Amino acid sequence: MLKRVVCIAVPALVIMVAAQVNAREDRQAALRASTPIPIKDAAPPTIREAQSRNPTATAPAAPPAAQPAPQRTETIVYDSWTVTCQEGGTAKKTCVATLQVVDKDRRLVLLSWQIGLDKSSRLTTAIQIPTGLAVKDEKQQRVSGGISIKSGVSLKLGASAVRQLAFLTCAPQQCEASAPMDDAFVKDLGAATTATATVNTADGHPVPFEIPLKGIDKVLASLRR
Question: What is the pTM of this model?
């Protein structure tokens, strides 16, 4: 029996700045400050002439800039999926569906699966895994820690063939595997009731995640609106 544990460490950075003041430069600055410096009138001749006729006249104020519309966020839950949409301001409406696999005992996210539209309005999927994911083999009393980046994520949708998603980005806390969703991907996803996402530890132990897909048909429909 395998038990999944996530360990995440955050480094701290302290920056210290020191400054020294030269006494001689202070005295020279004080002498310069005591000498008056003439200031030229920066106003154009036309404005100076108008001000001489009417001292209270000032340049016309610029019209107030139009304020952008406030951003609005809408969240809809479809079984295990949560669809979050944002619109308003200068950006067009964007929606992202998210499903999370959580270790309830430790309250840690073991896997996060997202589906959304890219800049070309094409469906794209991404799976995020903690880099410190570890499994414990209770039979052999051995812990395998860290994920294999080169192995990526193997994703099986129902009875369809396994799809391989490569890790494209990695941060200290997590790696993300992503891929565009073609028509065959969307069809297999919509027809499946369960999915299995498998990652490997650094020493080759597979870690499968069984994921229910109830509500995925509503998710795909909402993302295409």
Answer: 0.66
